[in-house]
């Protein structure tokens, strides 16, 4: 399929960019790895090397949120992908598209609900709770609590019950009458 290894490397880099473009959300290293390995596009070690190269070339960038690092396309990465997308074989694109269609919800569930806390002083912790949809905050709530135990408890409850709690908050805010 490829005449030389530099063509194969370029193809695999395009596939990584394509995955992030088609899924329309930022992914952690483990999520990208899951997509690549389950679609049998390349091996783990090649993927890690290519991610590093894409970062160095400024096609991808990493940001940290809720103690996780997320990869996202840069403008340069998006422009490069758009100009070279036709170089991706249709069967490879279809394989990625099919995988995303079947697994996007489970990948999205991992990244939509976020909770973290920061110690401000001996008896003050700021808890941040968020629900994100399509890279926009549906809710971003900061609470000031008095113990690390309470902060941990709130974060764990949020992770388990965020959709129900979010619906309750919306209901309370839209129906409350004094």
From TrEMBL:
Taxonomic source organism: Intestinibacter bartlettii CAG:1329
Source organism phylogeny: Bacteria, Bacillati, Bacillota, Clostridia, Peptostreptococcales
Database matches in Pfam families: DUF4364
Protein name: DUF4364 family protein
InterPro entries (UniProt xref): DUF4364, WH-like_DNA-bd_sf, WH_DNA-bd_sf
């Amino acid at each position: 399929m490829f005449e030389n290894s530099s063509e194969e490397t370029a193809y695999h880099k395009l596939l990584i960019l394509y995955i992030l473009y088609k899924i329309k959300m930022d992914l952690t290293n483990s999520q990208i790895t899951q997509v690549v390995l389950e679609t049998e596009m390349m091996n783990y070690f090649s993927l890690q090397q290519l991610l590093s190269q894409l970062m160095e070339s400024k096609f991808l960038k990493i940001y940290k949120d809720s103690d996780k690092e997320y990869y996202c396309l840069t403008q340069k990465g998006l422009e490069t992908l758009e100009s070279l997308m036709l170089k991706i074989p249709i069967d490879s694109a279809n394989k990625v598209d099919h995988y995303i269609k079947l697994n996007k919800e489970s990948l999205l569930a991992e990244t939509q609900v976020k909770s973290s806390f920061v110690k401000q002083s001996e008896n003050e912790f700021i808890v941040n709770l968020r629900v994100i949809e399509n890279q926009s905050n549906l809710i971003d709530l900061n609470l000031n609590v008095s113990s690390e135990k309470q902060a941990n408890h709130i974060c764990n409850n949020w992770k388990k019950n965020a959709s129900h709690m979010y619906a309750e908050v919306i209901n309370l805010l839209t129906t409350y009458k004094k």
